[in-house]
Amino acid sequence: MTQTPLVEMRDMNIRFGGNHAVNNVSVDLNPGEVVGLLGHNGAGKSTLIKMLSGAYRPDSGEIRINGEKVEIHNPRDARAHNIETIYQTLALADNLDAASNLFLGRELVTGSGFVDDDAMEAETRKIMARLNPNFKNFAAPVSSLSGGQRQSVAIARAVYFNAKILIMDEPTAALGPHETQMVADLIQQLKAEGLGIFLIDHDVHQVMKLCDRAAVMKNGKLVGVVNIADVTDDDLLGMIILGKNPITGEVVTD
Length: 254
Known about the structure:
By secondary structure, the chain is an alpha/beta fold. 32% of the residues lie in helices and 24% in strands. The protein has helices at residues 45-53, 75-80, 98-102, 117-131, 147-160, 177-192, 204-210, 233-242, and strands at 7-16, 19-29, 34-38, 60-65, 68-70, 83-86, 165-169, 196-200, 213-218, 221-227. The protein has a six-stranded mixed beta sheet, with helices on both faces. It has a four-stranded antiparallel beta sheet with strand order 2-1-4-5, with helices on one face. It is globular.
């Protein structure tokens, strides 16, 4: 029996003035899968994903979630379909602790209407025990946390509010080896829980390590979608630089 994808983006198009930023691109994402989105700056990968996150409205194309056609006009619509985005900047409030960041804008309150700090910390401890058992700095402002710990807070926030589809923008950028491994472990945990992840990255080696498939774009067009097990680092580089699909031999032209 064929699995219904979590996400199907079909024939997506968007123009900005004379620039055809995304040109008839189709990709999908299955439960428990990580799909890497690769390409040079300006290739269209972030623009494609911003149509899924609600940041941009496509000129044409169709988005299906669990097989059902949906309309995503803004980030609120995306969240209603259990789509959460973790940008490279993480959008954390540096002066607040992990629990305050987890519930920022969605605070738990007591019966008398006051913010329930104890309940928020208890819930934060629960989800961190599930995602990153080594996380201990619950009282510290997130500005004092390492890059990997900050990623943990941002991921926990998304997962706590029932994300099923996670968009991660260069999650290991500027992290050291230990922190990068921490994020890799988090991604494996999310996969095991059945989440689907679109991972936007420039680093071919990280995509080879973290992803099940890779979708490569060049000049707004899709070069191809390949299984990581079937390709090498050089194959992916050839897709990015030359626009050549290593499976079909086809070349994307400007």
